[in-house]
Amino acid sequence: MQKLSVQAPRSVVMIRPHHFSPNPATAADNAFQANDAQRTAAAIAAAAHGEVSRAAQRLEAAGIRVHLFEDEGTATPDSVFPNNWFSTHSGGHVALYPMFSPSRRRERRQDIVEMLKQRYRVQDVIDYSGLEQDGVYLEGTGAMVLDHIERVAYAARSNRTNEVALERFCTHFNFEPVMFDAVDAQGRAIYHTNVLMCIGTDFCLIGLSTIRDAARREEIAGRLAETGRTVIDLDHEQISGFAGNAIELQGRDGRVVALSSRALAALRPDQLVTLERSVALLPLDVPTVELAGGSVRCMLAGIHLAARSPVAG
């Protein structure tokens, strides 16, 4: 039987939006966003609702516990991406994050935090959201890609990833910060680290060519290889297809990698073979959600907490 890994959570939080739309307030620094002039706003919202519903069903069918919350409000167009405003950590820790766009700060929900406390063993909640008043931002596991095994936080510098906030998080949560500059094929800063990098138990998907400094690129590639992981290098086109925006999860029959159908199509056959040596691939069809500039990884907030034992009633 495959050994459980601290890198691969068994449960996730998802938000099912009722009024989804690509957020114009975040488009300036998110080159992954796109518009769809062929469909009405209502049709786009309905399609996203269906995509999230089907994705949650597929994850549950694979043995992954999904805590699915509804977002019926009209003021939170990016609510489908909860991993940006909170994260959970072994030992019973929860972090709440400062968000760059004021339109995204309304996504933080106390009912989700309370669910975590009720269903899982939560010792403390560290709230960094006050840093928003100082113009300091760190958008959760979008801004950081965490190696839970080696305790390293990889982060690409951007409007949404501030070095001061990263250092503070790493001090509190016992991670080593590794920050770098990453750009797309047009030389624009990549807004979130998790679109260029995914760390699993035995592999790492990473767009090494996005790392601007050659020495830093070699250093990071070397560090990942030293962990014993297979490093799968993604090119700019694959990054644009969300091939890096994946997450390893613990399913009923072993570890899986959840990624979008678009991401799966962007990977080469040899890369797929390498991945399938250690995980099963679980593609989810989310093309409408991807209009907002994020994909499957952004949609899933992993729960790295110990579940409470059910109380006999």
Automatic annotation (TrEMBL):
Q: Which domain of life is it from?
A: Bacteria
What is a single Pfam family found in this protein's UniProt entry?
DDAH_eukar
In Swiss-Prot or TrEMBL terms, this protein is called Amidinotransferase
What InterPro entries does its record include?
Amdntrnsf_FN0238
Q: Which organism is it from?
A: Bosea psychrotolerans
